[in-house]
Design goal:
Length: about 180
């Protein structure tokens, strides 16, 4: 009888864990290549505080089989949705904490703009360091992104969906990126 109760308890606990676990396949695509591995973090939305639509970000990192000092950059591609077309981004700052802002390695490039359902969609690209991506993913709260474009500051604040995704990705990538 005691063994039966223990087995039922174990199965119940295991099913609770199994149902609450997140599949990284929804958030992360990994492709081995002959000279390394490419990691793609699928787009995630970060709600806008003062704009018509969210910021959508995706990250791509190539982890070479033989890393070099120049191989630790992550490509950050993003989409913003605004009332007016954004033709140039003056600055973008990732704020995992106010004391430690993350600034891109080079100028942010506008890839294209288009009008969609009365909103302007501007797609951009920039780069940050791999350890900065890990810093963003390891934060439990307070992640914000400020984009200055067309003489206006747009602020995006991470929500529970961002943190849920980050809690899934951070431990996986910290092992993969060693």
């Amino acid at each position: 009888m005691h063994l039966k109760i223990s087995c039922v308890s174990f199965c119940l606990l295991l099913s609770m864990f199994w149902c609450s676990a997140q599949s990284s396949g929804k958030f992360l695509i990994t492709r081995p290549l002959p000279d390394g591995t490419i990691y793609f973090i699928v787009p995630s939305e970060i709600p806008a505080q003062n704009e018509v639509g969210p910021l959508k970000l995706d990250f791509t990192y190539f982890h070479p089989a033989e890393p070099s000092p120049d191989s630790d950059t992550v490509v950050v591609n993003g989409s913003i949705y605004t009332r007016i077309p954004v033709k140039e981004i003056t600055s973008i700052i990732f704020l995992p904490t106010a004391a430690n802002p993350i600034k891109p390695l080079d100028a942010t490039q506008i890839l294209y703009i288009e009008q969609v359902k009365g909103k302007w969609h501007s797609r951009f690209s920039t780069r940050i360091r791999r350890h900065e991506l890990m810093q963003l993913l390891s934060m439990d709260s307070g992640v914000q992104i400020e984009i200055v474009a067309e003489q206006r500051t747009r602020r995006y604040v991470a929500n529970s969906k961002w943190y849920k995704r980050a809690r899934t990705l951070s431990p996986i990538l910290s092992v993969e990126f060693r």
